[in-house]
């Protein structure tokens, strides 16, 4: 009986098989986790430096504009490039350039330049490079792991992201408040952390697209978009994610709801985001069953509906603890949504198109949140913040139902972890072992 309990606990906890069996994935995961914490520290430092320079929340909000414009402009255009060359070499180049941008942020902080335009320019360059780096990097996991370990690997990546979300800002706050350190030490820590990321990437095998390479240009972009348009499975995954982020990601409403219900205490406002991060981290830690879920399309729709329901409840929750609990539920649902979307997109996309599809996936993920803030603020302006958050959550549930009915192929989609015919990995997977 004791052995059965232990076995059940192991099945419940995150599946560490990819870390045990793939040294290349293990090095990549560890390096990316360390570097991501550094990136979170830089994001904190940029926000704080802009506010210290201007005292304006609008100027801080303009950081998002400086990031969103190049992300959307470069995102889709980079897909054919990812499918045309060795993806490992491409990520080495972009990661090195990102390290140089962090070094430039470090230099301006230590030099005391205090130039607002320079901060915006560096953030825009950083976002442009990330729009190439991240889609290319996202092609690595399907190439390094067998299909049966894909969901587990993506869940581990999500756990890495949640560690970054919770540890990065907290560590940045401590470093900034420490005597003789300040925000410039955050920039320096980020620059140094790139060494771990570059080591993990440099030790990877070659990552050339299998099934032919694309010639960058409008025709290659059109081919990628055409594939997404024809595939109910890929389209359903993208639409479900957009529904969740556009309708039910009311971060822009947090200050107003905090002021209305909890007196505007900044500590309470900080707990809102922390609760989402903690929920996501807990769900990532207990993601063992995710790898055994076969009907991933249906599971993603359920997770999206739970996300929407949690935010609808958050809008009207009467007490602080219930409010934070519902935000934690939303964070947990979000973690599962991201893992299912990643597994579906990776498994349903031929390797020769993977860069273009991953680029579109990145644009959907990055742009949805920005559109969500705009939608939530616009609805709140004509109604109230509570009505906006409640309506957005209910709209997300309705959207999940509509997508499930309108795209039956997505709802019926089943993963096939044991079918060799579905393994469209590049030869790099064998070389990485």
Q: Could you characterize what this model shows?
A:
This protein is mostly helical and 433 residues long. It has two domains: 169 residues, Up-down Bundle (Growth Hormone, Chain: A), CATH 1.20.1250; 194 residues, Growth Hormone, Chain: A (Up-down Bundle), CATH 1.20.1250.20. 79% of the residues lie in helices and 0% in strands. The protein contains 20 helices and no strands. α9 runs antiparallel to α10, α12 runs parallel beside α17 and α14 packs across α16. The longest helix has 32 residues. It starts with a helix and ends with a helix. The relative contact order is 0.16.
Quick tags:
433 residues, mainly alpha, Growth Hormone, Chain: A, 2 domains, 20 helices, 0% strand, globular, disordered N terminus
**Alpha-beta content class:** mainly alpha
Distance between the termini: 36 Å
CATH superfamily of the largest domain: MFS general substrate transporter like domains
* Helical coverage, percent range: over 70%
The largest β sheet comes out as: none
- Give the CATH class of the largest domain: Mainly Alpha
What string, H for helix and E for strand, traces the elements in order? HHHHHHHHHHHHHHHHHHHH
CATH architectural designation of the largest domain:
Up-down Bundle
How many strands in all?
0
Strand content: under 5%
Low-confidence stretches: 1-8, 418-433
Number of individual domains: 2
Write a short abstract of this structure.
The protein is an all-alpha fold. The chain is 79% helix and 0% strand.
Task: Break the fold down into its secondary structure elements and pairings.
Blueprint: H1 2-12, H2 17-21, H3 23-54, H4 57-75, H5 79-82, H6 87-111, H7 116-138, H8 140-144, H9 150-177, H10 183-202, H11 218-230, H12 232-247, H13 254-262, H14 266-285, H15 296-316, H16 320-348, H17 354-382, H18 385-406, H19 408-412, H20 428-431
Helix pairs in contact: 3-4, 3-9, 3-10, 4-7, 4-17, 6-7, 6-10, 7-17, 9-10, 9-14, 9-16, 12-15, 12-16, 12-17, 12-18, 13-14, 14-16, 15-16, 15-18, 17-18
